[in-house]
Write a structure and sequence with these properties.
Blueprint (H helix, E strand, L loop, with lengths): L5 E6 L1 H5 L12 H4 L2 H4 L2 H6 L1 H15 L6 H8 L5 E6 L5 H5 L4 E3 L2 E8 L10 E2 L19 E5 L9 H10 L2 E5 L21 E4 L13 E3 L3 H15 L2
Parallel strand pairs: 1-2, 1-7, 2-3, 7-8, 8-9
Antiparallel strand pairs: 4-5, 4-6
Helix pairs in contact: 6-9
Length: 238
Protein backbone atom coordinates (compact mmCIF):
# COMPACT_ATOMS: atom_id res chain seq x y z
CA UNK A 1 0.00 0.00 0.00
CA UNK A 2 1.45 3.38 -1.05
CA UNK A 3 2.00 5.82 1.80
CA UNK A 4 -0.28 8.83 1.45
CA UNK A 5 1.25 12.31 1.53
CA UNK A 6 0.44 14.04 4.81
CA UNK A 7 -0.94 17.58 4.59
CA UNK A 8 -1.29 19.63 7.75
CA UNK A 9 -3.15 22.92 7.61
CA UNK A 10 -3.20 25.79 10.10
CA UNK A 11 -6.25 28.01 9.64
CA UNK A 12 -7.21 31.30 11.22
CA UNK A 13 -9.95 33.92 11.07
CA UNK A 14 -9.41 34.59 7.36
CA UNK A 15 -10.54 31.01 6.66
CA UNK A 16 -14.06 31.77 7.84
CA UNK A 17 -14.26 35.46 6.92
CA UNK A 18 -15.74 34.64 3.50
CA UNK A 19 -18.58 32.86 5.28
CA UNK A 20 -19.41 36.07 7.13
CA UNK A 21 -18.01 35.11 10.53
CA UNK A 22 -16.96 38.24 12.41
CA UNK A 23 -13.22 38.43 12.87
CA UNK A 24 -11.68 39.65 16.12
CA UNK A 25 -8.55 41.59 15.23
CA UNK A 26 -9.30 43.28 11.91
CA UNK A 27 -10.70 46.81 11.62
CA UNK A 28 -14.31 46.67 12.72
CA UNK A 29 -13.72 43.31 14.38
CA UNK A 30 -15.21 42.09 17.61
CA UNK A 31 -12.39 43.37 19.81
CA UNK A 32 -13.32 46.92 18.80
CA UNK A 33 -16.88 46.30 20.03
CA UNK A 34 -16.15 44.17 23.10
CA UNK A 35 -13.06 44.61 25.32
CA UNK A 36 -11.16 41.35 25.15
CA UNK A 37 -10.65 41.20 28.91
CA UNK A 38 -14.38 41.51 29.43
CA UNK A 39 -15.54 38.58 27.30
CA UNK A 40 -12.50 36.37 26.68
CA UNK A 41 -10.52 36.19 29.90
CA UNK A 42 -10.86 34.23 33.12
CA UNK A 43 -11.08 37.52 35.02
CA UNK A 44 -13.92 38.67 32.77
CA UNK A 45 -15.75 35.40 33.35
CA UNK A 46 -15.44 35.72 37.11
CA UNK A 47 -16.54 39.36 37.03
CA UNK A 48 -19.67 38.82 34.92
CA UNK A 49 -20.37 35.25 33.77
CA UNK A 50 -23.79 36.30 32.51
CA UNK A 51 -22.29 38.82 30.09
CA UNK A 52 -19.77 36.27 28.82
CA UNK A 53 -22.48 33.63 28.39
CA UNK A 54 -24.62 36.04 26.36
CA UNK A 55 -21.65 37.11 24.23
CA UNK A 56 -21.08 33.50 23.14
CA UNK A 57 -24.83 32.93 22.74
CA UNK A 58 -24.71 35.74 20.17
CA UNK A 59 -21.68 34.18 18.45
CA UNK A 60 -23.54 30.85 18.16
CA UNK A 61 -26.65 32.57 16.82
CA UNK A 62 -24.42 34.01 14.09
CA UNK A 63 -22.70 30.68 13.43
CA UNK A 64 -25.83 28.59 12.90
CA UNK A 65 -26.90 30.97 10.10
CA UNK A 66 -23.51 30.61 8.44
CA UNK A 67 -22.42 28.08 5.83
CA UNK A 68 -18.94 26.77 5.00
CA UNK A 69 -17.36 28.57 2.06
CA UNK A 70 -15.58 27.07 -0.94
CA UNK A 71 -12.29 27.31 0.93
CA UNK A 72 -13.60 25.01 3.67
CA UNK A 73 -14.97 22.61 1.07
CA UNK A 74 -11.73 22.55 -0.91
CA UNK A 75 -9.77 21.79 2.26
CA UNK A 76 -12.14 18.89 2.97
CA UNK A 77 -11.78 17.67 -0.63
CA UNK A 78 -8.02 17.23 -0.13
CA UNK A 79 -8.86 14.08 1.84
CA UNK A 80 -9.60 12.28 -1.43
CA UNK A 81 -5.89 12.28 -2.28
CA UNK A 82 -4.03 13.07 0.93
CA UNK A 83 -3.85 12.29 4.64
CA UNK A 84 -5.16 15.61 5.99
CA UNK A 85 -5.17 17.20 9.44
CA UNK A 86 -6.68 20.64 10.01
CA UNK A 87 -5.38 22.64 12.96
CA UNK A 88 -7.59 25.66 13.45
CA UNK A 89 -7.48 28.74 15.63
CA UNK A 90 -11.17 29.22 14.88
CA UNK A 91 -13.86 28.15 17.32
CA UNK A 92 -16.54 27.64 14.65
CA UNK A 93 -17.44 24.23 13.26
CA UNK A 94 -17.32 25.13 9.56
CA UNK A 95 -14.45 22.76 8.76
CA UNK A 96 -16.42 19.83 10.16
CA UNK A 97 -19.59 20.90 8.39
CA UNK A 98 -17.66 21.09 5.12
CA UNK A 99 -16.55 17.48 5.58
CA UNK A 100 -13.10 17.61 7.18
CA UNK A 101 -12.71 14.52 9.34
CA UNK A 102 -9.69 15.40 11.50
CA UNK A 103 -9.89 18.89 13.02
CA UNK A 104 -7.85 20.06 16.01
CA UNK A 105 -9.33 23.13 17.69
CA UNK A 106 -6.61 25.08 19.46
CA UNK A 107 -8.82 27.73 21.01
CA UNK A 108 -11.90 25.72 21.89
CA UNK A 109 -15.24 25.07 20.26
CA UNK A 110 -18.13 27.50 20.15
CA UNK A 111 -20.77 24.77 20.06
CA UNK A 112 -19.56 23.25 23.32
CA UNK A 113 -19.92 24.22 26.97
CA UNK A 114 -17.91 22.91 29.91
CA UNK A 115 -17.49 22.99 33.64
CA UNK A 116 -16.07 26.26 34.94
CA UNK A 117 -14.34 24.26 37.67
CA UNK A 118 -12.59 21.79 35.34
CA UNK A 119 -12.68 23.04 31.77
CA UNK A 120 -10.94 20.07 30.18
CA UNK A 121 -12.85 17.24 31.90
CA UNK A 122 -14.86 15.65 29.07
CA UNK A 123 -17.38 14.25 31.55
CA UNK A 124 -18.80 17.74 31.92
CA UNK A 125 -18.72 18.83 28.28
CA UNK A 126 -22.02 19.64 26.65
CA UNK A 127 -22.34 19.77 22.85
CA UNK A 128 -25.01 22.18 21.66
CA UNK A 129 -27.04 21.81 18.48
CA UNK A 130 -28.26 24.34 15.93
CA UNK A 131 -31.83 24.09 17.27
CA UNK A 132 -30.72 24.25 20.91
CA UNK A 133 -27.73 26.56 21.06
CA UNK A 134 -28.74 29.12 23.65
CA UNK A 135 -27.49 28.72 27.22
CA UNK A 136 -29.27 30.62 29.95
CA UNK A 137 -26.89 32.50 32.27
CA UNK A 138 -26.62 30.63 35.56
CA UNK A 139 -27.01 27.16 34.03
CA UNK A 140 -24.97 24.58 35.95
CA UNK A 141 -22.65 21.88 34.65
CA UNK A 142 -23.01 18.29 35.90
CA UNK A 143 -20.40 18.93 38.61
CA UNK A 144 -22.42 21.81 40.07
CA UNK A 145 -20.23 24.62 38.77
CA UNK A 146 -21.42 27.22 36.30
CA UNK A 147 -21.55 26.01 32.71
CA UNK A 148 -19.07 28.13 30.75
CA UNK A 149 -18.14 28.36 27.07
CA UNK A 150 -15.58 25.76 25.98
CA UNK A 151 -13.24 28.51 24.84
CA UNK A 152 -9.56 28.95 25.68
CA UNK A 153 -9.59 32.35 27.35
CA UNK A 154 -6.63 34.69 27.10
CA UNK A 155 -4.01 33.71 29.65
CA UNK A 156 -5.12 30.06 29.77
CA UNK A 157 -3.02 27.19 28.49
CA UNK A 158 -3.70 25.70 25.05
CA UNK A 159 -4.11 22.00 25.83
CA UNK A 160 -4.12 20.83 22.19
CA UNK A 161 -0.86 22.56 21.21
CA UNK A 162 1.39 19.53 21.75
CA UNK A 163 -0.84 17.34 19.59
CA UNK A 164 -0.86 20.06 16.94
CA UNK A 165 2.95 20.31 17.08
CA UNK A 166 3.22 16.56 16.44
CA UNK A 167 0.96 16.91 13.39
CA UNK A 168 3.06 19.82 12.09
CA UNK A 169 6.21 17.70 12.48
CA UNK A 170 4.63 14.82 10.51
CA UNK A 171 3.59 17.01 7.57
CA UNK A 172 4.91 16.46 4.05
CA UNK A 173 3.15 19.69 3.04
CA UNK A 174 2.21 22.47 5.46
CA UNK A 175 -0.49 24.99 4.52
CA UNK A 176 -1.39 28.17 6.41
CA UNK A 177 -4.68 29.93 5.59
CA UNK A 178 -6.00 33.22 6.87
CA UNK A 179 -3.81 33.85 9.88
CA UNK A 180 -1.32 36.64 10.52
CA UNK A 181 1.10 34.34 12.38
CA UNK A 182 1.00 36.81 15.26
CA UNK A 183 -0.96 34.66 17.72
CA UNK A 184 1.13 32.31 19.83
CA UNK A 185 1.52 29.49 20.51
CA UNK A 186 -0.26 28.67 17.21
CA UNK A 187 2.13 30.79 15.15
CA UNK A 188 5.04 28.77 16.50
CA UNK A 189 3.75 25.56 14.89
CA UNK A 190 5.55 26.39 11.64
CA UNK A 191 8.85 25.87 13.47
CA UNK A 192 7.96 22.19 13.97
CA UNK A 193 7.76 21.62 10.22
CA UNK A 194 10.73 19.55 9.04
CA UNK A 195 13.40 21.29 6.92
CA UNK A 196 12.67 21.00 3.23
CA UNK A 197 8.92 20.53 3.65
CA UNK A 198 7.06 23.04 1.44
CA UNK A 199 5.11 25.67 3.35
CA UNK A 200 2.31 27.56 1.57
CA UNK A 201 0.56 30.60 3.02
CA UNK A 202 -2.79 31.79 1.67
CA UNK A 203 -3.72 35.32 2.70
CA UNK A 204 -4.61 38.43 0.68
CA UNK A 205 -2.59 40.62 3.06
CA UNK A 206 1.21 40.62 3.37
CA UNK A 207 2.30 38.25 6.13
CA UNK A 208 5.80 38.30 7.57
CA UNK A 209 7.14 34.77 7.56
CA UNK A 210 8.92 33.66 10.73
CA UNK A 211 12.68 33.97 10.58
CA UNK A 212 14.35 30.96 9.04
CA UNK A 213 11.16 29.62 7.45
CA UNK A 214 10.76 29.61 3.66
CA UNK A 215 7.14 30.34 2.76
CA UNK A 216 5.41 30.52 -0.61
CA UNK A 217 2.58 33.04 -0.28
CA UNK A 218 -0.56 33.01 -2.41
CA UNK A 219 -1.99 36.51 -2.00
CA UNK A 220 -5.64 35.61 -2.28
CA UNK A 221 -8.56 34.84 -0.02
CA UNK A 222 -9.22 31.35 1.29
CA UNK A 223 -11.36 30.06 -1.59
CA UNK A 224 -9.39 31.55 -4.49
CA UNK A 225 -6.13 30.69 -2.79
CA UNK A 226 -7.13 27.07 -2.28
CA UNK A 227 -8.12 26.76 -5.94
CA UNK A 228 -4.70 28.04 -6.98
CA UNK A 229 -2.88 25.82 -4.51
CA UNK A 230 -4.74 22.70 -5.66
CA UNK A 231 -3.55 23.47 -9.19
CA UNK A 232 0.03 23.75 -7.88
CA UNK A 233 -0.24 20.47 -6.01
CA UNK A 234 -1.81 18.71 -8.98
CA UNK A 235 0.97 19.83 -11.32
CA UNK A 236 3.53 18.71 -8.76
CA UNK A 237 2.09 15.19 -8.81
CA UNK A 238 2.34 14.82 -12.61
Amino acid sequence: MTKRTKITLLTGAGMSAESGISTFRDAGGLWEKYPVQQVASHEGWLADPGLVTEFYNARRAELIKTEPNDGHRLVAALERDYDVTVITQNVDNLHERAGSSEVIHLHGELMKMCSSRDVDDPRYHVTLTADNCRVEPGTLAADGSLLRPFIVFFGESVPMISIAADKAAEADIFIIIGTSLNVYPAAGLVHYVRPGVPVYLIDPKPVAAPRGVSVTQISKGASEGMRELIEVLTKGCR
